[in-house]
Amino acid sequence: MDRPSFEPLTFAAVVSRLEAALARPLPGEPAQLRMAPQPRRPWPDGWSPARLRHAAGLLAVFPGGRGTAGTTDRAAHILLTRRADHLDRHRGQIALPGGVVDPGESFEQAALREAHEEVGLEPVRVRVLGALTPLDIPVSGFRLHPVVGVLTERPVLTPSDREVAAILDVPVADLTDPANLARAARDRDGVRVVAPAFRVEGGEIWGATAMIVAEFLALLGWPDPAADVQH
Fold this sequence. Notes:
Largest sheet: 8 strands, mixed
Number of domains: 1
Strand content: 25-35%
Structural class: alpha+beta
Number of helices: 5
CATH architecture: Alpha-Beta Complex
Order of helices and strands: HHEEEEHEEEEHEEEH
CATH superfamily: Nucleoside Triphosphate Pyrophosphohydrolase
Mean pLDDT: 86
């Protein structure tokens, strides 16, 4: 299939596309579903919407590597974390920095605070561009609100020993490379699911994080990856 050009995938070009796309209606659930596990996890029997909790995550974009003419031709990267193995939920998975929204906080404030707590990212370094479509996560009872922000440089970061096993610096070009797309069967609470994933840094982005990344990439013009996902 024909693919829109992602060359050059520079930080400046990606930010420009994001600014334009976030001023329009979001691609929403159809874009998220490109990387959704099947079958989708339902809400538990007897679950009440009154129990829904809100969380926020930061999808931070920054220039990586060294350009030939300053920062404008440097590749765009995103910041992700590998969750600590001792956590009760989503242990060891690759995720956005994020967590529960505290009383009185906006989603933006919560995302920035959580990024500071988890990886030491100073909120003043982040220019928030907008938000992606909220995503419900039945396994933990959360509605996750992804916030997109940009940094002019990659800061020096330190993972929180309590929550983060590693900080990942992922080029956007790697996420859009068909060679890094996979689909694998996984056991989830005794149910066999087929989950599309992005292969990055020796691991895989799948589940809710992959669905959020899929909508982010759709803002850049990424086509439906179904034909490219490897089994």
